[in-house]
Amino acid sequence: GHRAAGSKSDVRERTLIAVKPDGVQRRLVGQIIQRFEQRGFKLVGLKMLQVSDDLLSQHYCELRTKPFYPRLQEYMTSGPLLSCVEYLIVWEGHKVVQASRTMVGHTNPLEAQAGTIRGDFSFHISRNVVHASDSLEGAQREIQLWFQKKELLNWDCFDQTLTCEV
Ligand code: GDP
Ligand code: MG
């Protein structure tokens, strides 16, 4: 359900953003991070890694039986057209899950609005540059999967009062 806007618990809302291998290959990492920074989100965890088939199937557990899953796995994990690495970013802020999905845009880049990351940087669903958790529950599950607790840093953001007031 929806909490009251600006309630304290919103400040704890976190989401998992990943720059997919095509985004790393195309040197879009800086621009994508910049969009979240300029929106006012707070970076609390960041790492680069090669995703294993096992981690990916846990991450996309709801998609494992889809016909496109083998293609998705190849895209996200390895192969000559793909990067072997990903950037992972955990952002924290007011309504961050919803806001980041809006910033990322439609799953199919051809339907994504201009101004969104996918709408600006991609044109194919198999190369859509970025991942964003689609719900609070999904975000919590994904963050636990990708990050150890000690890898997420609690730090005071001087403008936090601005970002949590409505
Ligand atoms: P997202 O949350 O917007 O990333 O979309 P989903 O969670 O539904 O799917 C995860 C990823 O799988 C998408 O970002 C796409 O890269 C890929 N994907 C989803 N649907 C399709 C499809 O119909 N065909 C192909 N080739 N890839 C898909
Ligand atoms: Mg998804």
From TrEMBL:
Catalytic reaction equation(s): a 2'-deoxyribonucleoside 5'-diphosphate + ATP = a 2'-deoxyribonucleoside 5'-triphosphate + ADP; a ribonucleoside 5'-diphosphate + ATP = a ribonucleoside 5'-triphosphate + ADP
Tagged with keyword ATP-binding: yes
GO term, biological process aspect, one: CTP biosynthetic process
Binding site for ATP: 20, 68, 101, 107, 118, 128
GO MF annotation list: ATP binding; metal ion binding; nucleoside diphosphate kinase activity
This enzyme's EC code(s): 2.7.4.6
Domain Nucleoside diphosphate kinase-like: from-to ranges: 12-154
Enzyme class: transferase
Coiled coil feature spans: none
Subcellular location: Cell projection, Lamellipodium; Cell projection, Ruffle; Cytoplasm; Mitochondrion intermembrane space
Main location: other
Keywords of the record: ATP-binding, Cell cycle, Cell projection, Cytoplasm, Kinase, Magnesium, Metal-binding, Nucleotide metabolism, Nucleotide-binding, Nucleus, Transferase
Reported cofactor(s): Mg(2+)
Residues the record marks as active site: 131 (pros-phosphohistidine intermediate)
Membrane protein topology class: Peripheral membrane protein
One GO CC annotation: mitochondrial matrix
UniProt family annotation: Belongs to the NDK family.
Function: Major role in the synthesis of nucleoside triphosphates other than ATP.
Protein name: Nucleoside diphosphate kinase
Species this chain originates from: Dissostichus mawsoni
Lineage per the UniProt record: Eukaryota, Metazoa, Chordata, Craniata, Vertebrata
From-to range in the entire protein, with total length: 40 to 205 of 205
